Amino acid sequence: MRVLFVCLGNICRSPTAEGVFRRLLDERCLAERVEVDSCGIGPWHVGKAPDPRAREAAARRGVDLSALRARQLADDDFYHFDMLVAMDHDNLAAIEARRPPHRRVPARLFLGYAGYPDRAVPDPYYGGEQGFDEVLDLIEAASRGLIDEIEARLESAP
């Protein structure tokens, strides 16, 4: 199973989701069975590390984002990944606009896995540090729900 988290610039929400998701996969002994990556819709931060505030907030919860580097959504992602997970409605619309017409890899909002099918993960970039903690709370909840779904799929696979 291969999961790609997508946000706008790949320096706040999606790398945080990638880091949290990896940690939770490790805790559930699923890291060997699930590949995880993140990217952004736009090219603004390609090659850059996650926002320092995102790294600091994640580190306070035992999640290390320091090795991650931003990249942009690529056409190959529609063929490589089994699930595309968008942080907000604009990201989801951008994924759908770029999707090759014959490729139906599932894409949905991340917070749907936490029971909020129409809610977006807020972008903390222009806010204060408390926004990064709120994002972490939401990402942890959605990650648990997504891992439950993936685990059920893996258990039912032949």
UniProtKB/TrEMBL annotation:
GO molecular function annotation: protein tyrosine phosphatase activity
Keyword field: Hydrolase, Protein phosphatase
Principal EC category: hydrolase
Keyword Hydrolase included in the entry's annotation: yes
SMART domains in alphabetical order: LMWPc
Top-rank lineage group of the source organism: Bacteria
Residue ranges of domain Phosphotyrosine protein phosphatase I in the record: 1-149
EC number: 3.1.3.48
List of catalytic residues: C7 (nucleophile), R13 (nucleophile), D123 (proton donor)
Family of this protein: Belongs to the low molecular weight phosphotyrosine protein phosphatase family.
Name of protein: protein-tyrosine-phosphatase
Taxonomic placement: Bacteria, Pseudomonadati, Pseudomonadota, Gammaproteobacteria, Oceanospirillales
